[in-house]
Structures are given as C-alpha cells and as structure tokens.
Amino acid sequence: MSVLIVDDAQIRELNRDYLGKDRPTNVISFAMQEGAGAGVQPDLLGDVVISAETAARDAAEAGIAVDQEICFLLLHGILHLLGYDHERGTEEEARLMEQREQELFALVRSQMVS
Fold this sequence. Notes:
There is one protein chain. The chain is of the alpha+beta class and 114 residues long. The chain has one domain: Metalloproteases ("zincins"), catalytic domain (Collagenase (Catalytic Domain)). Helices cover 54% and strands 14% of the residues. It has helices at 8-19, 52-62, 66-81, 91-113; strands at residues 2-6, 27-31, 46-51. α3 (66-81) packs across α4 (91-113).
C-alpha cells in the first residue's frame, strides 16, 4: 500500500480525472485488487491519497488535531481498499463501514493519546 499526502489542487485533479468530480475531497483510494489488473500482485492493496488542506479544515471544524484527522482518513481509505463501500453499497454496508471505522479509530486514538 502507498500513502500520498497532497494539497487540494492535486487531489482535485485526481478526483476529476478518475472519479469525474471536479472538486477537492479529503481522501481517495485506488484499489489494486479491482479492475483489469486485479490479482496480478495479490499482496498489493493499493493507494490512499489524502489532502492535507482538506484534512486541516475538517479537523478544525471537528475540534480535533490534524494528525488525528489524517489518521482517520487513512483508516477510511484502507477500509475502501479492503472492499468496504459507503457510497455505492447498501445502507447496511455503509453502516458496517462506519462502525468498523469508529472501532479502529478508537483503538488508534487510544494509542495516540498514551
């Protein structure tokens, strides 16, 4: 898996070119186990791209530290790479992803604080 931290301009370009959404976003995941090349490298999950600028804004709105927001976005992106989907799946799948996200973030957050 690779992790890339970029600015809003860079993530907007990726979002536009690959997802057809001409705006910045907080995180995008590119799974290597989907599409034509799936299975070529079974141990390779994919790429997670995070916008530091959007993460900083989101953290300020939520009243949390930027490193915690980036950690949350990384977890969110990894869950996408593992097949969780809150956008194209059912409400139950979205709920399951959110539940898993919260469980993992609570574990990681407890380690960040100690």
